[in-house]
């Protein structure tokens, strides 16, 4: 990316403090993300150790293998619909998520949803880097078993070898983001397809140990009654959406670089219902095979890789899993906070600087300790993550129903009191009130004790309530006239 020299879009005030080269609208020269790139983006988003663990973990709710696959597929369809709504809007307006949110929340109010998204992304960025480092450690120990003594607990609870693996991947990711979105596109194009090699190889190996026979009626949890099965089915479907709720909200960060609406829709179609379904099916097949071979479901593919006898296979699989996790981390958890942090002070923080801040924070939160503390992930990250549903509902209603797909792009960068999206001192009280009410409800639902069927509904409840409130508040007295660009 370039530096932060102010380059306002045509029509925006030349003295605006709300723009830098990275937050400015996409041009024809930078619209390089075609159908294949969008397809690979979604492949990269789905292919990770955490994604595998999530899909496999759903078996523990008590449904059979085929029921779990069908429930996850239902969630994939909801995700596909949402990605089309956000993607089409993002491509048309041509601005990153925090700038897009200015039309609904106000030019300064947009920092509220943007920084909420950034908080979640920073923590997950650190956690994903740590998970990728565990795959790298498997590779290192297989090649150099004498380093096993380096795995003992060390500085701040992470072993010497753990620190080396973590910092190597941390540096690689920082180098990728340092060269901007075009390098991110190329990294995604490689990482997305590459993991299929490892997943297919892992499936062949474990199916061979399972004598090429698995039971799709097998389950990891206790059998469920008819009503409980329906509740679990709905829960799994929406947990699938919740798992991708953050990336769904900031999808405009990527869709804006697509040259056409058609490229976005085609990329979404291949990348979500086709690819994500295939990944889910393969993940469940592998898990059912592990259930037969080991008597339990292994939610971490790295554990399987470490059990393989062939050094060559272990090395290749470990490299591919580490590569895939680095890819998903850059795409889902690095790009978003880089833009979101830049949006907080555009004149002083570029996309590149926002990325550096994200990387530094990801070490300070000590993700290896966070991963061990599931209560933190459930209550803090789960609670903040639940706010992504209301943000999605508010943005979609504002764009499609309130503004009727019309945006005065130059006004998104106006920090003057007469600006179209300035509202009240740069904040839209209606959108923020809708977020406050729906967000509170969504968090309460997300943190409901001992009721996974209820917590799974936090995204649809929050999204629906946020959408309804936003529409109701703006119908009473529309904040922004629906004028054309």
TrEMBL record:
Q: Where in the cell is it found?
A: Membrane
Q: Sorted alphabetically, which InterPro entries does this protein's record hold? A: Pur-cyt_permease (IPR001248), Uracil/uridine/allantoin_perm (IPR045225)
Q: Which Gene3D superfamilies match?
A: Hydantoin permease (1.10.4160.10)
Q: What is this entry's stated membrane topology? A: Multi-pass membrane protein
Cite the residue spans of the region called Disordered: 1-22
Spans through the membrane: 41-62, 69-89, 123-143, 155-178, 190-208, 228-251, 272-294, 314-336, 348-370, 376-397, 431-448, 454-473
Q: Where's it mainly located?
A: membrane
Query: GO terms for CC?
Result: plasma membrane
Tell me the GO molecular function terms.
nucleobase transmembrane transporter activity
Q: Which UniProt keywords apply?
A: Membrane, Transmembrane, Transmembrane helix
Q: Which family does it belong to?
A: Belongs to the purine-cytosine permease (2.A.39) family.
This protein is called what?
Nucleobase:cation symporter-1, NCS1 family
Q: What is the lineage of its organism?
A: Bacteria, Bacillati, Actinomycetota, Actinomycetes, Mycobacteriales
